[in-house]
Amino acid sequence: MVKTERFFYLGVRFEPEATRAALPEALEPLDDFSGVVGMYVAPEGWGLAPLRGTFFGISVKGPQSPDGSPTVFFSEHVLGGPGQRIIFKDYNRRARRGTTDVVPDGAFVRATLDTQTGLEASIVLEPHYAEILPPQSGIHYYIGEAENNGLNIFSIAFTGRFVPSTVREFSIGNAASALMKSLQPSEVVWAMLIEQMPMTFSAPSRYFAGETADYSARAHQVGLMDLLSRIGHPAALVNHHGRTLFLTPEAQRILTSAKIGGKLLVWRRRDQQALDGAVSALETSHRLVSEPIAIERPEGALPILARALPVSSVLAGEPAVLILFSDPSTGSSPEAAALLQVLGLTPAEARLAATMASGRSARESGELIGVSENTARSTLKTVYDKLGISKQSELAGIVARLG
Question: How far does the signal peptide extend, from start to end residue (predicted)?
Answer without folding.
Answer: none
